[in-house]
Specification:
47% strand, mainly beta, Immunoglobulin-like, 6-stranded mixed beta sheet, elongated, 3 helices, single chain, 3% helix
Length: 703
């Protein structure tokens, strides 16, 4: 059975046949009907080779022969009478005029005889074949075929046929053909298309076994089956593709498993891009942990992990969801640095295949030890010495009365801090970076102050603002030195219990203390004060978001504004004003678009990331996740001062500085800013809070 798609052509041929049968052909002289030989009509036209062709007229029994186009002469008649002649159309006949030979001379038709050539595709073999194999098409008038079209629109022109005759075509199946019906075309502008009734089954690879299974990432995987040499690519679960095979034959493929391959079925891709999925799932080997030492370990110190297949590990997660730093090793032993803020828990080791294994027991951590505090009888602002062991773990010293001091100069066995104003008698507590705390067995005895003492003052202010310092004996103060060694020059009231002072405009921004100098030269340090303000843009070429042309390409929340009451300098800024819960993108670009990473390159240690921000309402949770993603990794810094300070709001615009050395991809520190070729920007994540904040002038700046 065949199907043709040029029905318009067939209808036209039928109409031509009717027209031809009604046509008449006469000898030029006008003899009388009684003796003259006349041709009135002939048909059908189009006619089939091998079919009947009939001529109607008068005295046709005198016709001796009929000459068809291509000088094909017929003198043998199926039947011949005075009114009708019937002949069989020879195979070599082509379109053209017909001449009847008579004793009275030649009679030539006024219209041409056309030959119908009904293309038939009756069968093909084999029914199933590999790409590149020869398929034989059989039918009729196949000598007219100019193109064989396979499924997936893969065609072979007649110049590529192996052989071609009226009844047979041999053609090679294209390498990228797909299973489907075969179509033959005569190649005309309005072509005749004939489609096979059945589909040609184009053979695909088939898999019978994966071995070894489970398999270790980075090692060889053997795939057994049939027609595997037809596979041009293997896709692993997770999307990793392999097209370079160690060896390939019809029955076996050998290839290396990508490091990032995941558990699941794999797919073999033929050149036709048809994917064949295995019924067997591939399982990736996971490491085994046999030991961790030392245990207890010390925050900031190293542990040695022993086991098998440890070279698969790409990250280690300690208690508190803190990422450790992998320091290298082998398949049986690796070293990992314990994060400074990790807490006691099991350790989870993660592979590139996103598989994990948990240590058998809890990794305990050493804690600070206090053996003595001296002197125990002490006044405000005087130095206290804490001795003991593992004191280099301490981040904060807390005193009775709710005061505390951050520690920056601790050694293994000693800490020196000044007793804050407002401390009351009682024990002290040292707090490690991971939150572990230890309280002293000894107590401080706070002695009455005989010199100037501060009892209260603001914890936050900005340059140019007047602040009030309240205390006792403040009339002894002769000079105030602000952070950055900047002396105060403008005052309001100055009494024994109050000093009103204007913060100098050139004061150092950030958290610091004010030094108060008495008439006797004694120096008194104030409680910490966060002096907020905006740093000028040092190098405009290092700005990569300013929202006046250097804008975001995408984000989930926020928009560019230019409110005169909120703008930093009259220019536009970016503002978010909504409740955020989980991942909420603020502003992003990628592709190194106006990103000055190449300027800094590997000079990471001498630069910081800065941004100006005005927090209009307290932020209570979550984090601002700053991202720098590129070819060397996906580097993050999580800005969340509210985690340690409580609800966070600024008093106008301030500048935040983040050392570039604080950006990490897992345990890997950012080392080359020129490798940042993908996404860069910031999003809210890991919590929920109302965020009403303005951001401007995101930039890098040299230290």
């Amino acid at each position: 059975m065949l199907r043709t798609f040029n029905m318009k052509a067939w209808l036209l041929l039928g109409l031509l046949a009717i027209a031809t049968l009604s046509d008449s052909c006469k000898k030029e002289d006008d003899d009388s009907v009684g003796t003259a030989i006349e041709l009135l009509s002939f048909g059908p036209s189009p006619a089939l080779r091998g079919g009947d062709l009939t001529f109607i007229g008068h005295n046709l029994d005198q016709v001796t022969s009929i000459v068809l186009s291509n000088n094909v002469s017929v003198s043998t008649f199926v039947s011949k009478t005075a009114e009708r002649i019937v002949i069989t159309v020879p195979e070599e006949t082509v379109d053209g005029l017909v001449v009847l030979k008579t004793p009275q001379g030649d009679l030539t038709t006024k219209t041409i005889l056309t030959i119908s050539e009904p293309i038939k595709l009756t069968s093909f073999s084999p029914q199933n074949a590999r790409p590149g194999a020869v398929v034989t098409l059989e039918g009729d008038y196949l000598n007219l075929i100019k193109e064989v079209i396979f499924n997936n629109r893969k065609s072979v022109l007649d110049t590529g046929f192996i052989s071609q005759s009226k009844t047979k075509i041999e053609v090679r199946i294209p390498e990228d053909a797909q299973t489907g019906k075969i179509v033959v075309s005569n190649g005309m502008p309005d072509p005749i298309l004939v489609e096979s009734e059945s589909e040609l089954g184009v053979v695909l690879p088939s898999v019978t076994q994966l071995s070894p299974n489970p398999v270790k990432a980075g090692t060889a995987l053997t795939i057994n089956g049939a027609d595997l040499d037809l596979a041009q690519e293997v896709i692993f679960s997770g999307g990793d593709r392999v097209s370079a095979f160690t060896s390939a034959s019809a029955s076996e493929l050998v290839l290396n498993v990508p490091a990032n391959a995941k558990d699941g079925a794999i797919k073999l891709v033929a050149k036709s891009l048809v994917e064949v999925e295995t019924t067997e799932s591939l399982t990736l080997v996971v490491p085994t942990i046999t030991g961790i030492s030392p245990n207890p370990a010390k925050n900031g110190g190293n542990i040695t992990v022993t086991g098998t297949n440890l070279d698969l590990i790409v990250s280690a997660v300690f208690g508190g969801d803190k990422q450790g730093t992998l320091l290298g090793g082998s398949a049986t032993s690796i070293q990992v640095q314990v994060p400074a803020d990790a807490t006691e828990s099991t350790v989870t080791f993660i592979t590139a295949a996103d598989k994990s294994v948990v240590s058998g027991g809890t990794l305990t951590l050493v804690k600070p030890v206090i053996t003595a505090i001296a002197p125990q009888d002490i006044q405000f602002t005087n130095e206290l010495t804490i001795t003991g062991n593992h004191l280099d773990l301490v981040a904060t010293v807390k005193f009775s009365g709710g005061t505390e001091v951050s520690v920056s100069n601790a050694s293994l066995t000693e800490i020196k801090v000044n007793v804050p104003v407002g401390t009351t008698s009682g024990p002290i507590t040292v707090v490690a970076r991971n939150g572990e705390s230890v309280t002293s067995s000894q107590s401080l005895n706070i002695l009455p102050s005989t010199s100037a003492t501060i009892t209260s003052m603001p914890t936050m202010a900005k340059p140019g603002e007047m602040i009030s310092i309240v205390g006792e004996n403040l009339n002894e103060i002769t000079e105030l030195i602000f952070p950055g060694n900047v002396p105060a020059t403008m005052f309001g009231q100055k009494t024994a219990t109050l000093i009103e002072v204007f913060i100098p405009l050139n004061v150092a921004r950030g958290v610091g203390v004010i030094t108060l100098i008495t008439i006797n030269g004694e120096m008194i340090l104030s409680p910490p004060i966060n002096i907020q303000g905006v740093d000028p843009v040092a190098d405009p070429a290092l700005v990569f978001f300013n929202f006046d042309g250097l804008n975001a390409w995408w984000g989930d929340a926020g928009a560019i504004e230019n409110n005169p009451d909120l703008t930093l300098d009259g220019s536009s800024y970016f503002r978010v004003n909504q409740g955020c819960n989980g991942w909420t993108g603020f502003f992003w670009r990628n592709g190194q678009n106006n990103f000055p990473g190449a300027t800094i390159g590997t000079n990471i240690g001498n630069y910081v990331l800065k941004f100006d921000i005005n927090v209009l309402a307290p932020i209570t949770g979550g984090e601002f996740a700053w991202r720098l993603k590129g070819t060397a990794g996906d580097f993050w810094y999580y800005w969340k001062p509210w985690e340690s300070e409580g609800p966070y709001q600024t008093n106008g615009w301030i500048t935040i500085s983040i050392p570039l050395t604080e950006f990490y991809a897992g345990g890997v520190q950012l080392s080359d800013l020129s490798t940042i070729t993908e996404d860069f920007g910031v999003a809210f994540n890991n919590g929920s809070s109302t965020v009403n904040a303005c951001i401007d002038n995101v930039r890098f700046e040299a230290l």
